[in-house]
Amino acid sequence: MLDLFTAETPEWGVTAVAARLQLPKSTTFDVMASLAAIGMLQQTSGDRYRLGWRVLHISRRLMSSSCLDANANRRVAVLAHQLSAVVTIGAWDGQGVVCIANASTDGTEPIVTDAVHISGHTSALGKLLMAQLPWPTVEERIERSGLPKFTEKSVDDVNIFRAQLISARRDGVAMEYGETFPGQSCVAVGIYQRDHRAIAALSISVPTERLLSRSEEYCRIARRTARSLVIQNEVPPG
């Protein structure tokens, strides 16, 4: 239900939510009233609701309880400035790759905002994080959503995509060359918990020509930065 509330459709009424989710109106009313009572929704007028401020509180609590260093946003901004690149931290939320932090020194470059979903199959972040999932889970997602092309270079062949995931899981790094934005390419590495599970990933996006000539350098920088983002009591692999 909460997923219905977006920047494009920030306000919903009980009747519309019931119709969209195919739920009885009485059930929808009870659920939305309960969410409003705990601050997850706020009532605007009549039976209409918006997201409540408690969502932000829970978001901050999630960040503070994760293995990420409290200075992750600042570190991302500093690295973006040093490299003249777009630097992003993303995590898999069960439905796709969600942006946790993002920074760029050039407002004209592709940039996403926090909590926005990022392409799973074309982005390096998505490839790295989806590589951690069992292949049957990935197959189910492909059957449901397909592999839509964002550029002429976007992978749309299941076998090629699976090979990319195998490589990302084996090497701990994923790359994409112009699959999401023309002329922009990206390298991503995992951010690991103590159990060697990638709970997030960090990516560096630069013009394709630059990544082609400096891919090893950017891989080293990304890995070093990813390790620095993990709080001291967590031990990343390698």
Automatic annotation (TrEMBL):
<dbReference type="GO" id="GO:0003700">
    <property type="term" value="F:DNA-binding transcription factor activity"/>
</dbReference>
<dbReference type="Pfam" id="PF01614">
    <property type="entry name" value="IclR_C"/>
</dbReference>
<dbReference type="InterPro" id="IPR014757">
    <property type="entry name" value="Tscrpt_reg_IclR_C"/>
</dbReference>
<protein>
    <recommendedName>
        <fullName>IclR-ED domain-containing protein</fullName>
    </recommendedName>
</protein>
<dbReference type="GO" id="GO:0003677">
    <property type="term" value="F:DNA binding"/>
</dbReference>
<dbReference type="InterPro" id="IPR050707">
    <property type="entry name" value="HTH_MetabolicPath_Reg"/>
</dbReference>
<dbReference type="GO" id="GO:0045892">
    <property type="term" value="P:negative regulation of DNA-templated transcription"/>
</dbReference>
<dbReference type="InterPro" id="IPR036388">
    <property type="entry name" value="WH-like_DNA-bd_sf"/>
</dbReference>
<feature type="domain" description="IclR-ED">
    <location>
        <begin position="54"/>
        <end position="238"/>
    </location>
</feature>
<dbReference type="InterPro" id="IPR036390">
    <property type="entry name" value="WH_DNA-bd_sf"/>
</dbReference>
<keyword id="KW-0805">Transcription regulation</keyword>
<keyword id="KW-0238">DNA-binding</keyword>
<dbReference type="Pfam" id="PF09339">
    <property type="entry name" value="HTH_IclR"/>
</dbReference>
<dbReference type="InterPro" id="IPR029016">
    <property type="entry name" value="GAF-like_dom_sf"/>
</dbReference>
<dbReference type="InterPro" id="IPR005471">
    <property type="entry name" value="Tscrpt_reg_IclR_N"/>
</dbReference>
<keyword id="KW-0804">Transcription</keyword>
